[in-house]
Every structure is written in structure tokens, then in C-alpha cells.
Amino acid sequence: MAQPPPEAPANHSPAPADNSRIARGASAVVQWIARHWLACFNIAWGAYAFVPFLAPLFFNLGWEEPARIIYFLYSFTCHQLPDHSYFLFGPWHAPHAEQLLAAGMPATPNLLIERQFIGNSEIGYKVALCQRDVAIYGAVFFAGVIFAFVRSWLKPLPIKWFILLALPMAIDGGTQLIGLRESNWLLRTLTGGLFGMAAVWWAYPYVQAAMNDVLEEEARRQT
Predict the structure, then answer these.
(1) Are the C-beta atoms of residues 138 and 46 closer than 8 Å to each other?
(2) Cystine design at 55: which of 36, 70, 82, 201 (Cβ 3.0–4.6 Å)?
(3) Distance in angstroms (rounded) separating the CA atoms of residues 131 and 96
């Protein structure tokens, strides 16, 4: 009696329709990112620059736990030294070391201990980012918003001009770091803001050009 022919092995590879669906989905994601990258950047930088101001607000309202969480998270990216920080809900927006010491900041050469001073009802409560970082990330956010209106024609800032605009922050921060002089809130804000603006002007046009290339390539693939 003749034996029936053996069954063909099952094909477990995805069907062409499934592959096509996956490819279309991946292409849609890529195009969405290419079209909306600037909005994503601006939202991210805006949130990063804004959330530190919630910490002193929460402390002033008596919501200590969420405030401490914000201080803790930003402590990984910023030194948070009290005499280099803005203070809210106090008599001074940028108190000096003498005023902070009088309000209870520990008198110690150990910066790891000093940075733990958040403030109190007498002096106010510090923002979770230092003055220079507030200026840098705030400038990145506002420059990104402006870039949305000029990105169709704005060319990248030449690297020599970027270095020149970053130099004031390097000098101000560097001379303070090695103990030659002490900066102040105005210089930290001006030099940090200048650097943040220059960084956007230099980098964002390149990102926009790369995203335009992605959209053009996706359009060619679809046709």
C-alpha cells in the first residue's frame, strides 16, 4: 500500500502583509520624530528648567516629601550649593554666604555638607538647580522656541563663534573653581544664558538638516 507523501514543513516566517505593516509602522514613527523633534526637545528642556522651581514652592506649602524628591533627583546633575543658587520666598533672591550662615547654613569647608542646606522660613528655599544651570537650560528652552520660527533659514553658528560665546562662562566658572575670584549671580546668569543660546544656534540647525534628510529619504522609499 502506497504511503502518503510527507507533509511540507510549516513555514513560521511572518507573512508578507505582516512585514509590510511593520515597515509602515516603523516608517511612521521615524517620520513623526523627524517632524516633531523640536517640540520634543523644547518640552524636555522646558520641564528640566521649570521643575527645580517647584521644590522651593512645595517646601513653602509644607509639601516636604515631593520637594526633597526633586532636590535628590537634581543633585545628580548639579552641585546645588546654596550660595550659588536662587532662593524663593525669602528676603533675597540670591543671598550671600554671610546671609546664609546667619540663617543656619553649616559653617564647614565640606561642600557635600553645605549643599544639603535647603533653606528655611527665614531665608527662603533654594531652587534645585544652581544659578548658572538655570540660565543655561532656560536659555536652551527659549532659544529652542525661537528656533521654531527661524529654522527654515537659520544657518548653524560657526564653531569659532560658538567657542567665543562659550568663553565667558569658561572664564567665569574656571577662575571661580580654582579660587582666583568669586563670581556672582548676575555673571553666572549672563554667561550661562549666552552659552545656552550659542549651543542651540550651533547644534539645532544641524539636527534640523538631518531630520530633513530623513524625511526626504522616507519619501523616496515610499515612491
Answers:
(1) no
(2) 70
(3) 13
User: Are the beta carbons of 222 and 27 closer than 8 angstroms?
Assistant: yes
Strand order of the β-sheet with 85-88 is: 85-88, 124-130, 119-120
Q: Is 36 helix (H, G, I), strand (E, B) or coil?
A: helix
> Which regions of 61-205 does DSSP assign to beta strands (E)?
85-88, 119-120, 124-130
Low-confidence ranges of the chain (pLDDT < 70): 1-18
Does the reported pTM lie above 0.85?
A: yes
**Which residues constitute the domain of residue 200?**
32-222
- What is the per-residue DSSP string for 162-176? HHHHHHHHHHHHHHH
For residue 4, being part of any structural domain is answered with no
pLDDT (0 to 100) of residue 21: 80
Q: Supply the pLDDT for residue 12.
A: 58
- Answer whether residue 65 is part of any domain: yes
- Structural domain tally of the chain? 1
137's CB contacts (< 8 A; 6+ apart) are 45, 48, 49, 129, 196
Contact 147, 154 (CB under 8 A): yes
